[in-house]
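Board notes (copied after class):
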Amino acid sequence: MNSSSPSSKYKLNIYKIYVLYFIMGIHTVRGVYIPYMMDWGGLTFFQIMILQSYFMFVIFILEIPSGAIADRIGRNIALMISALSVACAAFFYSIVPIFFLFFVGETFWAFSIALFSGTEEAFLFNTLKTMDQEKKLPTILGRTQTINLIALTISAPLGSIIAEYISLQFTMTSLGLIYLSAFLVSLTLKEPKIEGEKQAQHYLAIIKIGFQELKKNGVLRKLCYERIIISYLTFFLFWTYQVYLGEVNIPILWFGFIAALMNIVNISFTIFIPWMLKHVKNKLWFLIGIDMTIGFSFILLGFATLPFLGIILLLLIRGFGNSRNLIFVNGINRQIESENRATVLSTVNMFGSFLMAIAFPFIGLIVELNPFLVFIILGLVVLFFTIVKRIKNEDL
């Protein structure tokens, strides 16, 4: 096989995915999201959580069908539709502050996330497989997270500036314009062809495979469970940290800059975790140490009324919580057949979406009752699931 053919034409996919992750990370509303929803949108925090519960429920409904769509029509086409859908979501969200339009926007956004989730990982895995470099997937995914976080870091203060000098509304409108460029990039992706990969099966048959794979493969099932449960618990930090900053009297001017600092720490951890995985002898104990740190940091945050201490704890939770998924990548992908990879990964994410859809209203109620209490509860739950881990070191 000469160097100019089969695999070389797919190599650019990796760099295009990097560009795609950067564009999708330019989130101008992220650093001021709670003020956007409450001040411009006129919602209470509980209403925001109801909206997010609906968002996660839609992801839950669409997760497997979207993965099946990706396996059937092509993962490159699925990524194109995902980029276009999220652009539409941002535009719907910024027309006028009507609750119904927010639901429409969340529907488009949920479809985009469901379609993207698992598909991009499967797309990258097959691209690397054409070059016999599958083992690089954790490093590549670490880089995509880093690139995404760099964009988030740049755009968080930018969003604060737009909100201050133009309007809160335009922080979302500009997001739609930015995401249209992601769609243009996605048009250039080339679908990798894997030798021996089966042709896409009937839609319902593909959906069934996702459940069957998890049912018959105990190792895969345990890995997926361990991957999503604590990572999804730490995701609640995104919805509560701005409330916390307000409770400890940090001016809103600094919200975007603190969000940027959290992303900088996250970038460092997405580089640090893959590097550590190459040097640690026992990945399981490494994972347990990370999860214990997350749990105790949440609990301490529930008592931290000093802004400086609270920010330190936010940084620890954000850094470890987002990057811990990289520990599971090789173990999970070793257990899945290539042609249905997106379907199986989407099945896994579906369960996490279902759990979050149930939890969001309760988080909203607890925050309105006592914002500090929610962190203590999250910390205790994280520690519980850390103690009852069932995976083995060789599974990772």
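Comment from the instructor: The CA atoms of residues 88 and 176 lie 7 Å apart. The chain has one domain: 8-192+201-395.
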